[in-house]
Amino acid sequence: MIAKEDDLEVTAVECTPGEVTLTWHDSFYSVYSALWLRDNDPVHRDARTGQRLISLVDLPQQPRLKAAEPQPPGHLTLSWEDGQTSIFALSWLRAYDRSLRIGSRPTRMPWMGQPVTAFARCDYAEWMENPASREDWLYYAGRDGLAFIRGVPVENRAVMQVAERIGFIRETNYGGIFDVQSVAEPNNLVYTNRALPVHTANPYRDPVPGFQLLHCLSASGEGGESIFVDGMAVGERLRAHDIDAFNLLCQTPILFRFQNAEVDLVAERAMLELDTQGQFRAIYYNDRSIEPLPLKGPRLKKFYAAYGQLARLLNEAARSVACRLQPGDLVLFDNTRVLHGRTAFIGGERRLQGCYVDADGLYSSLAVLSRRRSSHHDGQAH
Questions:
Q1: Which neighbouring-strand residues pair with 283?
Q2: How far apart are alpha carbons 264 and 204 in whole angstroms?
Q3: Domain spans of the chain, in order of start
Q4: Could you name the CATH architecture of 116-367?
Q5: According to the model, what pLDDT value does residue 306 have?
Q6: CATH of the domain spanning 6-102
Q7: pLDDT of residue 382
Q8: Which contacts (CB < 8 Å, 24+ apart) does range 292-299 have?
Q9: Selection from 244, 230, 152 nearest residue 198 by Cα
Q10: Which residues of the chain, if any, have pLDDT below 70?
């Protein structure tokens, strides 16, 4: 959310040697410490890159403010006791007060099973040609962890044309792009016509790929429905009903492994991961690649009980979203949040072509599109 121009006006400025308090036109107020202000003085930033030119050791340990004045218009001028002067744009100060700021990265919203039409969908031509449509689609993809594009050309590597507009393509031992289809001698159950329970792709990598794209080039004769489950909703359900089981899955590292003649990939991580604020960050669940658990006795028994609860929740039919992708359909999902699987299939030549995009690239694209739209609107307003 961007502050209105009127909101960037200040109605009061209070200055002490240790901090400045600004009261904004909309009655919100912000407090900035003297050390933070000195550390972020615009004069110490490169004009072209915005990167800091000094280190914290170059600053006074306890800088002291002498005065603060809301001038020139749209700016705040600070005078320091050591004779230095700093000038900040009020719009910059407002943007970096985290208590007033809502970033362009969407807040993730948990969901239960629902019609696939409840998720973001866009036609390929519109998605490629209209930045506003692409921005909206990326926002909902980040919010829900699941989004669709229709009418993608049924051509080899067309998925890359979409991925390159989203972010940075992650290359793996499967290459930058991979085909999901039955092969004669598969090195992974993905390359068979068997049903696959919902899972996280590649939890044996460090880091785990962020978003996966799958583009349908041809459909099966029967079966082959894609299945998606929100691991965030499942994690929160477990937290609400059995906090001990939830904590055990957050705190117990286990090994995931994939090996064949060319690679031996191993990573250690807990099944559930929280961020520094204790909020859900990721789920890593893949029955096929979990190594034998490194636990014994009561700990093993408790872990299996918690693991079993998680597995049953993930496989509840009411939680799943199912759809049978048709040629030209493309799905994107957050691989560290939304688990995916499929039903068994027979007949036809079911072929999905996929790739991975790191999460930072997707959110970077969303932020840039949002910034450009805001700049365009600001230009029109003036």
A1: 272
A2: 9
A3: 6-102, 116-367
A4: 4-Layer Sandwich (3.60)
A5: 98
A6: 3.30.2020.30
A7: 47
A8: 293/254, 294/254, 294/255, 295/252
A9: 230
A10: 1-7, 98-104, 182, 184-187, 376-382
- Asked whether 123 and 151 are in contact (CB, 8 A), the reply is yes
* pTM of the model as a whole: 0.85
Structure tokens at 174: 């499967």
3-state SS, residue 199: strand
Phi-psi region of 331 (alpha: psi -120 to 50; beta: other; left: phi over 0): beta
Tokens 């550390």 belong to residue: 39
Euclidean distance between CA atoms 43 and 59, whole angstroms = 13
Alpha-carbon span 29 to 31, nearest angstrom = 7
Residue length of the chain: 382
Token pair for residue 71? 């001038």
Instruction: Answer whether 338's CB lies under 8 Å from 226's CB.
Output: no
The model's pLDDT over 114-133, given as tens digits with 9 standing for 90+, comes to 999 999 999 999 999 999 99
Tell me if the bond preceding 207 is cis, omega within 30° of 0: yes
Distance CA 211, CA 348 (A): 28
- Annotate 81-101 with b (16+ C-beta within 10 A) or e (fewer): eeeeebebebeebbeebeebe
Within 8 A by CB and 6+ apart from 139, the residues are 106, 366
